[in-house]
């Protein structure tokens, strides 16, 4: 079995990032900020984009945080409402030190945002 986040589940176009950040809901907490909105495409999958500032640390730290967030999303994407575009911007690498803490932080913010399935809300 291959691990990783397939391309259909990723946001990668600059116009998508700009549109979501400009016209989406925003929530901050748990060492990160998320923006989300329903996808503009019917029957779309839940997609993830990650924006990491250089203020977070060096390239090694930034890449590790991105890997942890992608893995957290991959393991829990079925818990999110389908057709949601989600952008995550981590603010603290200490809070996202391992995959379990990254999952906990991501699911907590998604629960507060109301984008988890109703049976999975925290």
Report what the structure shows.
A hairpin with a 2-residue loop joins strand 1 and strand 2. The model has no long low-confidence stretch (mean pLDDT 88). Helix content is 35%, strand content 19%. The protein is built from three helices and four strands. The longest helix is centred in the middle third of the chain and has 18 residues. A four-stranded mixed sheet has the order 1-2-4-3, with helices on both faces. Helix 2 crosses helix 3. It has 122 residues and is an alpha+beta fold.
Instruction: Summarize the amount of helix as a percent range.
Output: 25-40%
Could you tell me the strand content as a percent range? 15-25%
Specify the oligomeric state.
Answer: single chain
Average pLDDT score:
88
**Largest sheet: spatial strand order:** 1-2-4-3
Structural class: alpha+beta
